[in-house]
Amino acid sequence: MDETLRIKAFLAVRRNQVRDYLDIAALADVTGTARAADVLGRIDEHYPDRRGDGDAASAQVARQLSDPRPADSRVIGQLPRYKKLAAVWHDWAAVVAACRQIADRMLDEGV
User: Fold this and answer.
1) Three-class SS of residue 69?
2) Which end of the chain is more exposed for a tag (fewer CB within 10 A), N or C?
3) What's the Cα-to-Cα distance from 2 to each of 56, 69, 93, rounded to whole Å?
4) Cα dist. 69→12, 58, 64, 65, 84 in Å?
5) What is the dihedral of CA 73, 52, 62, 111, to 10 degrees?
6) What is the pLDDT of residues 85-95, one digit of tens each?
7) Residue 83, CA distances (Å) to 11, 62, 97 in order
8) Number of domains making up the chain
9) Helix/strand/coil (H, E, C) string of 47-60?
């Protein structure tokens, strides 16, 4: 579960798609916000700065989770039609709120 969460966060940073934020929110719902924040706060141990600009992956994850702006925002209106998606995640505001809770917790922990 932890690795899936790290992969989804890495993908949110790299490709910035609605599905990535949705999956992060849903995974955090299962693991708990505190654990999700802890796992993502230590993402640098698994995904070090590959660009060489000194910007830690954890810092970028926290930034993007604090204000999700997916590149494919046009699909947000399609969330209610996603197959087997829990009704709570049909509302983009719920996804954003869950992501922000993770980011806030990460920042509280010093990311």
Assistant:
1) coil
2) N
3) 19, 23, 24
4) 10, 17, 7, 9, 24
5) 180
6) 999 999 999 99
7) 21, 28, 22
8) 1
9) CCCCCCCCCCHHHH
Q: 37: domain range?
A: 2-108
The per-residue pLDDT for range 33-91, each reduced to its tens digit, is: 999 999 999 998 887 665 555 568 899 999 999 999 999 999 999 999 999 999 999 99
Question: CA angle at residue 43 from 70 to 90, to 5 degrees?
Answer: 35
Q: What burial letters (b/e) apply to 56-76, b meaning 16+ CB within 10 Å?
A: ebbbbbbebbbebebeeeeeb
pTM of this structure:
0.91
